[in-house]
Specification:
This protein has nine helices and ten strands. It is an alpha/beta fold. It has one domain: Ureohydrolase domain (Arginase, Chain A, 3-Layer(aba) Sandwich). Strands 4-1-5-10-9-6-7-8 form an eight-stranded parallel β-sheet, with helices on both faces. A two-stranded antiparallel sheet has the order 2-3. The chain is globular. The two termini are 31 Å apart.
């Protein structure tokens, strides 16, 4: 089993941040398969791209902003889908920050349920090309918001990067007052305006962030299960994610990496960078 090189403690009780891999794509309807391979390939990419080896020493690179200094990270390895709820519930109860590597996006439903049962409804910052708010069919990776409705405070939530929505998804978002930001909105209003919206909806740190890598333009991230042109740039995503994390989160996931469709591991390296920058921006009290 591949372990995350940033893991620097040997058990959950000593940790602040817990990395969890869920090698499962059982709820995916995508024609592109292989997200179950994602967690280990992202770990490998992190170990290769976020560290230098020189004179027999392993030297970590520094994040662009923030720090990993004094942060205790534990890689819990990969777990089965059916074990995720209990693990997340226990981590949130113990005030740990879980970071989940998928796997298909439906694992977010499990995470939101566990967190909601522990803390009540949370704000959701959802980076995706698709709203995943189908209600005519449920219990799959396209119905996450429908399946998680009881655990989300929609007034404190935001979707970003959306550009491949079905009509029923937009109607469902309108019904609950869920704000949607498209890449064109970012181009028109600028990152600072969008970051202000993200800050305003911080829900006093009671927020979960979900990153479907297909929110990014395929030019930057070809290795995803359902690519959609005209997406976010990699830097825009990292900037907005760091802004959101710095105001407090209860957890985060990075999902839908599909290694078999990647090109020269650029999507894996980007996912590894998102992971590094995300951990660096977490405030540990």
């Amino acid at each position: 089993m591949v372990l995350f090189r940033h893991s620097n403690v040997d058990n959950i009780s000593k940790s602040d941040i817990v990395i969890i891999g869920v090698s499962d794509e059982s709820k995916s309807h995508a024609r592109r398969k292989g997200t179950s391979k994602g967690p280990d390939i992202i770990r490998i990419a992190s170990n290769e791209s976020n560290f230098f080896e020189r004179n027999g020493k392993i030297i970590p690179i520094c994040p662009m902003y923030g720090s990993l200094k004094n942060k205790k990270v534990f890689d819990n390895g990969n777990i089965k889908r059916q074990d995720l709820y209990n693990l997340i519930f226990n981590l949130i109860s113990a005030k740990k920050i879980p970071i989940i590597l998928g796997g298909d996006h439906s694992i977010t439903t499990i995470a939101l349920q566990a967190i909601g049962d522990c803390l009540g409804k949370v704000g959701l910052l959802y980076f995706d090309a698709h709203p995943d708010f189908v209600s005519s069919t449920t219990d799959y990776y396209g119905s996450i918001l429908t399946d998680s409705t009881n655990y989300i405070d929609f007034n404190k939530s935001l979707m970003c990067g959306i550009r491949s929505a079905e009509l029923e998804e937009l109607e469902n978002a309108t019904k609950v007052g869920l704000e949607i930001i498209s890449p064109i909105d970012i181009a028109e209003h600028g990152l600072l305006k969008i970051s202000d919206i993200i800050k305003f909806k911080n829900n006093n740190g009671k927020r979960y962030i979900s990153i479907d890598l297909d929110c990014i333009d395929p030019a930057f991230a070809p290795g995803v299960s359902v690519p959609s042109p005209s997406g976010l740039s990699s830097l825009d995503l990292i900037y907005l994610t760091k802004i959101a994390i710095s105001s407090g989160i209860v957890g985060l996931d990075i999902v839908e990496y599909t290694p078999d469709f990647d090109i020269n591991n650029i999507t894996a390296s980007l996912a590894a960078r998102i992971l590094l920058e995300s951990m660096a921006s977490i405030n540990i009290s």
